[in-house]
Amino acid sequence: MDSTIATPCPSTPKWNVDRPFLTGRFHQETKSTSGVTESKGFSVDHFSSGVDKPIGCYHAAIQELIVIDDLLFALVGIEGRYTSIKRVRGKDNSIIFQVDASMDLALQDSAKRMFPLCESYLLINQFVESRSQFKTGLVNHAFAAALRALLLDYQAMVAQLEHQFRLGRLSIQGLWFYCQPMMGSMQALSIVIKKASANNFTGSAVLNLLQSQAKAMAGDHVIRSLLEKMTQSTSTAYLGILERWVYEGVIDDPYCEFFIAENKSLQKESLTQDYDAKYWQQRYSLKGDIPSFLANAAETILTTGKYLNVMKECGHNIQVPIAENSKLTSVGSTHHYLECIKAAYDFASGELLNLIKEKYDLMGKLRSIKHYLLLDQGDFLVHFMDIAREELMKKPDEISVEKLQSLLDLALRSTAAVADPCHEDLTCCVEQTTLLKRLSTLKDLEISQTVSSSSDLEEPVSITGLETFSLSYKVQWPLSLVISRKSLTKYQLIFRFLFHCKHVNRQLCAAWQLHQGLRRLDMQGIAISVSSLLCRNMLKFINSLLHYLTFEVIEPNWHVMHHRLQSAKSIDEVIQYHNFFLEKCLRECLLLSPVLLKKMERMKLICLQYAAATQWLITYSNDTPKTGTSSEGSPNAEQYKQLKLRIPSRIQKVSSENATVIESILKFEREFTAELQSLGPILSSSSRAEPYLTHLAQWLLGVGRD
């Protein structure tokens, strides 16, 4: 006999545990009270103490009755007189059933064939008890309840078998025959239970395990049907969580079993403050454990609840209408639950889109931003640049943003912009870095990978507000989902490029007016002619660039986006189309091409230096007093008259000064022409990968051919 001390297994009932359907035992006076032994090893010869004599002492017919009696108890996890139950500790904590070695060999074989069913019952019963605890979650509770219902049927079967045994109508072969229908089902469930217990599965993992096992048993209709029914019963609790999410936008998940997680630390206010705000992507997100029957609809489910939550955040309490046939009660092969989810998504998406388009006037806001930040209506900008020129000429850290804001408000009220109901949302700001440097700090843009290590990013010695001024726009929830801080920053990058191009254009126009004024005074000469030609080429360059930016890039892309937004079916499509518009504009406006952008900045700098130097044309005579200019550098009529009176009498003295002026002008011309010519190969090579550069090349490379 094994020397291991036998200890009762806490999960296995002892012999004398009351069972209402197991009473009046055969030879009840000989029953054992030793319980279930538990050890790391086992011996075939080990049996409970208290057995009067080995079963082999009895006649074969009596042995059969005793074995049937013991097996009826073993079927519900209770040790018999000549059968013992032991649990072997190890990887799988298996249960071992043993019989008296003196038992008839044929009876031993018959008994051992029944033991797998007995073991399955013990495993299932123990699983039901452990998974009925509070902490195991709703899905495990539902699974345990379904198993408990199955065990009731099983126990009823055992009670009926015992009744037949009491009537003397049950043989060992009959017992085996009647247990056959339950054998496969109980073993299949025990396999599921072993896997669930070994991995401590909860929530979605339990549902996926049941489904995978049902598919694996495709050849056995009975077992597959049983596992599918278990899946149906187990998924009821999970579908209750899902129903509240897709119909109300509420996560009612006390045990964290749902595949959607909520990050409450992310607030909607971050959309207007943080360039890298992750509110829309991470406030609600998918977790890894998604039920396989919902895998294809997971994104739709997530999005439906998100839309409902946006409307709740707007104070627009709405609930998806639920018909009797649209409740999520089962996950059958008809896939009715997927139709319900799709219907809930369509309703939530349509309601939110209508709310944002109609109540919050999304298109009106976008048109307003286009007017101001993309310079669609430039009358207010001309007036603003006139009255704010003195302030914008200062260094960025010396500029009063409050003063600029008051001047901007004045310009808006003095022009047609006052008719725009959104003009009060426009604000101004002053950056501290150049455009290229600012682009390199935005890590999500392609330019950062190309330029971040370049020495060309060194800041100029002196920059003014004209290079760093920008406009901004106040956006409220829920429009901030579409017009986020990131989107506004991209608008501002385009605005800064356009604004500086406008400034260069105004300076060159002032220089051109100067040349025209000198021509009206009959001041003809080589210097004026050369300078006039250069000024015209520079104007043609900057006007061609502005034409390309506005009419070749912004306007066509805007119309494409506008058309797409009109046909958008969800807010996510609106966000996608809007982001695509901004990305395309940034790329085609050269802001994501550092080589071309630096080339354009260099050419604009040459134009500005030349425009500032055009005053030499009216001061090249040493005797000519320095004359003032208007705000844009053009002389007034009185200065022209004084200049005209002096020139005829000083013809001989101005030749050397004239040569100096010509040399300076030619220097500007050489620099400008060299930059323009070097632009050709760059545009030609880049246009193969970026076809839109072909239009830019057509406009710019024609400059200077005269």
Automatic annotation (TrEMBL):
It is found in: Cytoplasm, Cytoskeleton, Microtubule organizing center. The keyword Cytoplasm applies. Residues 362-697 form the Gamma tubulin complex component C-terminal domain. Keywords: Cytoplasm, Cytoskeleton, Microtubule. It comes from the Eukaryota. Residues 68-359 form the Gamma tubulin complex component protein N-terminal domain. One of its GO terms (cellular component) is microtubule organizing center. Its main location: cytoplasm. Belongs to the TUBGCP family. PANTHER family: GAMMA TUBULIN COMPLEX PROTEIN (PTHR19302), GAMMA-TUBULIN COMPLEX COMPONENT 2 (PTHR19302:SF13). Component of the gamma-tubulin ring complex (gTuRC) which mediates microtubule nucleation. This is Gamma-tubulin complex component. The lineage of its organism: Eukaryota, Viridiplantae, Streptophyta, Embryophyta, Tracheophyta.
